[in-house]
Amino acid sequence: MLRSKGSRKIVVGNEPYRWIISAASKGYLVLIAEHQEEKGRRLHVHIKSDINDYWVEFPYVDGLNLKIVTPKEVATIISQAIEQGWNPREKGPPMVFDWSGEVLVGR
Question: Is-contact 41 94, C-beta < 8 A?
């Protein structure tokens, strides 16, 4: 389960979740989400962003994709993942998706 420290709470469809943004490979962030009350499958969503390179590349940041993930997007992502078969109460390996604009795409 995601620790309370460092993760954020969100309620989607009257269900409580915890989420965190983690750095992935260069040019990507990973949203990790899970049900807050039951240990089940996690959701991993890869999101294109150069936000972690900001300080490394400073002051040459004009060409960077400085995408920041908002709570509203997290709610949309969780809703779309459920529509696409993610059951956060079910045991199993994480479901992995890509976030493409405003659409969740399976990997």
Answer: yes
> φ and ψ at 92, to 5 degrees?
150, 180
| Length of the chain as a residue count | 107
Pairwise CA distance, residues 29 & 26, whole Å: 8
- Alpha-carbon span 96 to 35, nearest angstrom: 16
pTM over 0.90, yes/no: no
Residues of the chain with pLDDT under 50: none
Q: Establish if 73 belongs to a structural domain.
A: yes
Question: Is position 94 within any domain?
Answer: yes
Instruction: Please name the residue that has the structure tokens 């990507």.
Output: 28
Residue 27 inside a domain? The answer is yes
- CA-based nearest residue to 34, from 80, 72, 99, 78: 78
